[in-house]
Design goal:
By secondary structure, the chain is α/β, with parallel strands linked by helices. It contains 9 helices and 6 strands. Helix 3 links the parallel strand 1 and strand 2.
Length: 206
């Protein structure tokens, strides 16, 4: 536990001092250019991958970087509310959905009833990626590894489509007032692939 406190001390003594003017400028306002929707996986670090500073990314993280379909409800909708705030209040220019290799959430899509007994809320959440599972199972796959990366990449595309169910995003996207991007991050190599909707494939960012 102590290393967490040591981290704060090091931040105060080094990082904060280096970016003191930046933090002071951000103390009363933020103007991020991008809404980053990523997986909660500890290996995915948005600011590290994009080399962005505090104040540039508005970040949403959840199991398997999922975007719920738009709906109006009296329930507590954390991801939906954060998307709404980023687009309607902060006026971000970009929405970026970032999936990654070896995603536990995507892998859990294929677990049986026994394996999901202790994670009922995760199981329910992953129903939002049900169409991804159905499509993958309907196509021939060489092995489990191929199924893994195909699921992870198709899930990014599926969640990009979910964004268009939000009326205010659909309008902005049609008017070219907002960009929607899909990325796939390969942890082992550090490579990041951007989805090309015209070619319907992920292309390595070089």
């Amino acid at each position: 536990m102590e290393y967490l406190f040591d981290g704060v001390r090091e931040f105060n003594q080094k990082d904060y001092r280096e970016y003191k003017n930046l933090f002071q400028g951000l103390s009363r306002r933020q103007q991020p250019h991008t809404l980053f929707i990523g997986c909660s996986d500890s290996r995915v670090v948005p600011n590290l991958i994009t080399k962005t500073l505090p104040g540039e990314l508005f970040v949403i993280r959840n199991i398997a970087n999922i975007v719920p379909f738009y709906r109006e409800s009296e329930e507590f909708l954390a991801t939906t509310a954060a998307i709404e705030y980023a687009v309607q209040v902060l006026k971000v220019d970009n929405i970026l959905i970032c999936g990654h290799s070896n995603c536990g959430g995507c892998k859990a899509l294929y677990m049986d009833e026994h394996q999901t007994q202790e994670i009922p809320h995760t199981k329910k959440w992953l129903e939002l990626a049900g169409r991804v599972k159905q499509k993958i199972l309907s196509e021939p796959v060489l092995d489990e590894l191929e199924r893994e990366w195909k699921t992870e990449q198709l899930n990014v595309v599926e969640q990009m489509n979910h964004l268009i169910t939000y009326p205010y995003i659909k309008e902005k996207y049609r008017n070219k007032e907002i960009n929607i991007l899909g990325w796939y991050y390969h942890i082992e190599t550090g490579d990041v692939f951007n989805y090309n909707p015209e070619e319907k494939r992920f292309v390595k960012i070089t």
